[in-house]
Amino acid sequence: MLKTRVITAIILLAVFLPVTLFAPIGAFGALIAFVVVFAAWEWARLLKLSGAGPVVYALVAAVALVASTRLGIGLTPALPFFEASSIFWILVGPFVLRRKPVLAQGAWRMFLLIAGIILFVACWHALVAARMTGVPFVLSLLLVVWLADIGAYFAGKAFGRNKLAPSISPGKTWEGALGGWLIVMIVGGTAAFLHTFEPTLYSALLERLGAFRALVALTLLVVFSVVGDLFESMMKRQAGVKDSSGLLPGHGGVLDRIDALLPVLPLAMLVLQLG
Question: I need a surface site. Which of 133, 163, 206, 260 has the fewest CB within 10 A?
Answer without folding.
Answer: 163
